[in-house]
Amino acid sequence: MTGAFIVLEGGDGVGKSTQAAALVEWLTARGTPHVHTRQPGGTPLGASLRSLVLDPATGDVAPRAEALIYAADKAQHLMQVVEPALAEGLVVVCDRYVDSMIAYQGAGRALDVAEVEQVADWATAGRRPELTILLDAAPGDAVAQIAEKDRLEGAGDEFHRRVRAHFLHLAEAAPERYLVVDARLPITEVTSAITARVEQLLDGD
């Protein structure tokens, strides 16, 4: 396979950034051209939106407004980063994507999940990753490890329980497109599980 869109998802504090970096290191070692990016962020507009929506100083943000901010980030990021990279045959490794918007702004904020998913689909023109790696862990322990919490990290235990449950629901609905990994495992074991699945994807096994 030339070009693939791979996304790492999961709750806060489960090690997505660590595993994304490990995957990028593995891709580099095997000589696979790639792009490492994230949402929100990954573009100048996205960086501004990320700062705005995650900063506790922003204060209360209406759940629908929050969802639309994330949708704007995704639309810009897809147009500016993801699609051009895929068109060049690169592997795109992205920290968060549409599932986070559906789980956080939909289930977490108790909005109509179907409506949020519809907005996300519109913003991204229905683009889905070839592989979503879901790092799963109970939210209490994971979030507790974060010293300085942003607006979403500090949203409370019940919020994060809803988020986790919906991530798992999304994975169960499309198992062929997901790898669910227990984030409590040793870091090296998590990395091995991820690289094995990505190798299958890229080599067509």
In words, what does this structure look like?
- It catalyses: dTMP + ATP = dTDP + ADP.
- 55% of the residues lie in helices and 14% in strands.
- The chain has 205 residues and is an alpha/beta fold.
- It has a single domain (4-203), classed as P-loop containing nucleotide triphosphate hydrolases (Rossmann fold).
- It has a five-stranded parallel beta sheet with strand order 2-3-1-4-5, with helices on both faces.
- It starts with a strand and ends with a helix.
- The mean pLDDT is 90.
CATH fold call: Rossmann fold
Q: How are the strands ordered across the major sheet?
A: 2-3-1-4-5
Characterize the overall form: globular
Characterize the biggest β-sheet.
5 strands, parallel
Count of separate structural domains: 1
**SSE pattern, N- to C-terminal:** EHEHHEHHEHHEH
- In total, how many beta strands? 5
Mean pLDDT: 90
Proper CATH architecture: 3-Layer(aba) Sandwich
Query: What's the helix count?
Result: 8
**Considering the protein shown, what is the CATH homologous superfamily?**
P-loop containing nucleotide triphosphate hydrolases
State the end-to-end distance. 10 Å
Catalytic activity: dTMP + ATP = dTDP + ADP
InterPro entries: P-loop_NTPase, Thymidylate_kin-like_dom, Thymidylate_kinase
Family: Belongs to the thymidylate kinase family.
Protein name: Thymidylate kinase
Compose a concise summary of this entry:
By secondary structure, this protein is of the alpha/beta class. Helices cover 55% and strands 14% of the residues. It has a single domain (4-203), classed as Rossmann fold (3-Layer(aba) Sandwich), CATH 3.40.50.300.
